[in-house]
Amino acid sequence: MTKPLAPHIPLNRPRLIAPGPVEVSPATLLALAQPQMHHRTPQARAKFLEVRGKLAQLLGDSFEAVIVTGSGTAAFEGALVSLVPAGAKVVNASAGKFSERWGEMAERLGYAVVKVQKPWGELLDAGEIAAACKDAYALTITHSETSTGALHDLEAIAAAAKAVNPDIVIIADCVTSYGVAELRPGAWQVDVIVSGSQKAAATPPGLGFVLFSPEAESKLIKNTPKGFYLDLERELRGQKEANTPQTPAINLIYALDVSLDRLLSVPLEVLWAEKKRQNDALIAAGDALGCRSWSGRPTPAVAVLVPPAGSGVKRIGGKQVAAALADMNQRALPGQAPHEDTVFRISTLGYADRYDALAVAGILEDAFSALGHPFERGAAVSAAWRVLSN
Amino acid sequence: MTKPLAPHIPLNRPRLIAPGPVEVSPATLLALAQPQMHHRTPQARAKFLEVRGKLAQLLGDSFEAVIVTGSGTAAFEGALVSLVPAGAKVVNASAGKFSERWGEMAERLGYAVVKVQKPWGELLDAGEIAAACKDAYALTITHSETSTGALHDLEAIAAAAKAVNPDIVIIADCVTSYGVAELRPGAWQVDVIVSGSQKAAATPPGLGFVLFSPEAESKLIKNTPKGFYLDLERELRGQKEANTPQTPAINLIYALDVSLDRLLSVPLEVLWAEKKRQNDALIAAGDALGCRSWSGRPTPAVAVLVPPAGSGVKRIGGKQVAAALADMNQRALPGQAPHEDTVFRISTLGYADRYDALAVAGILEDAFSALGHPFERGAAVSAAWRVLSN
């Protein structure tokens, strides 16, 4: 079914076109490879404070950043156990893999979890969530759902939840929206933002970020019984003074500093518009090949595309597309279990510019050509370029 | 005249799109950064021999490779002084900056130089060159002239020269054709091939290569009075045994090994076809913007393009185009002095694939748009993609 591989393929430059880990700039990698620094030196402590400041700058609000040595999941757990008292009611809004995870996590940790679930690919409903929030302590929600490609309307949901319960603590998984999509937690009344290093920050994995609003900070629990390493009240107190209770992944922090400088070299609005434009170009390329965005409100972090089906065109599976891209040395992703074959996922989330998005459109055309899918050559590239050059 | 820079430009990924130094793969850079090896260890000596073998493989003929720590010019000088006896007659065929350099070099070294010159941008004439070769000891010629973008017909020229003088030693500057353009020195009766690390070999600068045919090897002069460091007779004897008389840039040789593996992962015909396709795409993109290739027989190493002029369209200078590209963080080149403004030069010679060539077409469109040049948006990208996806 797949055409034989083109002979030039071994010469292809391998690319990470998955929504994290992402392409990392040579300058960032070079920072990582520096002679081993010690995290207690005045230089390292100054760098630590500088990076905390830049993380807040990338958010655009004067939130307090905690850098966790761990994944985004670790960071999310830290936010949860450091803010929500044992046994309290937690509303978990979910419509995909990652938002579901926060529900499982809260249940495991003994919270009284109320789940407001939507099928994968659909959008969360602000009214439905708000209705469950009346007597809840916290709401966990995912802004950009990487498993479905939906950018949920965090602004509307937070407004609705706060309207019925002004004290509710909103913990937002912004793992793939922070530094990518419009995000105004101060104005939107979102209390906690969670992300990680291997997404928009275009740094190798290993760091999670938690950013607390002033109000959330005032609600942090002292000596949470639900965690020791992830006690972010103690972490934040220490980190404000450039003291980390545990040893941080200091090389990654130096690397992150370099990556953040690139993102902060333009106003946030320009950064958001640019990442949206790149992702819109990927969706337009997919559209020209008969694919459609799984979500009607797509996140700019990743194009989650349903391959062509029906009306005389043979069905292509998401796994097939990802495999065809892998055959071309391009690392994309199929869907997330149990929807592996429903969609495929391509992204220019990391160290990639609009011309790389154009290149990915070309890659996608060649993958669909290898899969024997009928389309007019040049359609995807032209569609992408119309978006990019507009 | 130039439009204000687009706000997203600081987010552009800087690219080397000049014909050397070129983009280098992360794997190659990593090899360069290894713990300092010593060139006299058995491992380093084995690596040295391996790389010499791969250099011959990239040529496709069983020539003997000498690795010079120095530039391509050093390598060329080594070939000249190690093969041509003092005062002998040397025919210098030139039609651009680099071929002219070999004439100057031969004169400085005291050879009896006969110059067969063509204006820049034109093609060398085999008959004209052959007529000068009758009683010459050597012919110096540039295969791919990076200053004009011409790929001279080395096969025809060598055949004509050998027809009138079977003993003539043909030293070919293949700095930007080796590993890029069809090159069959055995069949074409070319005796010596000269190149360097920062071109198709996609390695940082610092190494020159000289490849000798068996016959050329037999003509090497012992103890040439014209050079000590560049005495390649002694070098070749040593290098065959993995002994270098002087200390080589051993880290660069380890890095080169990684880059050569990539190039040798496909048959030479595939590599040549792929680089030609990429460069043809750049020329097609330029064509769609009103540019034309300076040479009627373009080298696949670099697109040397004359910007639009006349018939109602305002003249754009080569320096302007290069500057507009530099404003976008893309390192291209204007023409070479004294033709700086006649042309601009763009290239995907190094670690770049066909999708990078598509990206460069997009970059070129945006540069011409910034210059206020009228054209139909999408024309250059579509033209490039037609070549690349064909």
TrEMBL record, chains A, B:
Question: Which Gene3D superfamilies does this UniProt record tie to the protein?
Answer: Aspartate Aminotransferase, domain 1 (3.90.1150.10), Type I PLP-dependent aspartate aminotransferase-like (Major domain) (3.40.640.10)
Spell out the InterPro entries in the cross-references.
Answer: Aminotrans_V_dom, Aminotrans_V_PyrdxlP_BS, PyrdxlP-dep_Trfase, PyrdxlP-dep_Trfase_major, PyrdxlP-dep_Trfase_small, SP_NH2Trfase/AEP_transaminase
Which sequence positions carry the modification called N6-(pyridoxal phosphate)lysine?
199
| Keywords, sorted A to Z | Aminotransferase, Pyridoxal phosphate, Transferase
Gene Ontology process terms (BP)? glycine biosynthetic process, by transamination of glyoxylate
Q: Where does substrate bind?
A: 345
User: Which SUPFAM superfamilies does the UniProt entry name for this protein?
Assistant: PLP-dependent transferases (SSF53383)
| Superkingdom of origin | Bacteria
One example GO MF annotation: alanine-glyoxylate transaminase activity
| Record-given protein name | Alanine--glyoxylate aminotransferase family protein
Per the UniProt record, the source organism is: Deinococcus psychrotolerans
